[in-house]
Design a protein that fits this description.
This protein has 74 residues and is an alpha+beta fold. It has one domain (6-69). 46% of the residues lie in helices and 16% in strands. The protein is built from 1 helix and 4 strands. Strand 1 and strand 2 form a beta hairpin. The chain is rod-shaped and about 70 Å long. The protein starts with 5 loop residues before the first helix and ends in a 5-residue tail after the last strand. It binds zinc ion (ZN). Residues 43, 45-46, 48, 61, 63-64, 66 line the site of zinc ion. This is Hydrogenase nickel incorporation protein HypA. The chain crosses the membrane at residues 12-30.
Amino acid sequence: MMRITLPESFFFYSTLSLAFIFILWLFYYLKRRRLEKRRIFICRFCKERIEIEPGQITLRCPKCNAIQNIEIGV
Ligand SMILES: [Zn+2]
């Protein structure tokens, strides 16, 4: 059987809690960033913000009527 002293158990507990919080934060951060990237497209000509559907390739700007390609990815 393993022997764990009180400071060691405290250390493990705090490390696990911090790791758990960090993983949760990372998950929400990546999800939010991906949503922001996919959903909003800014028109090259009039800087209008347009919401797009996932998988949509071309888009017609409702303000200046320009047809543009949407670049997905970095
Ligand atoms: Zn436009």
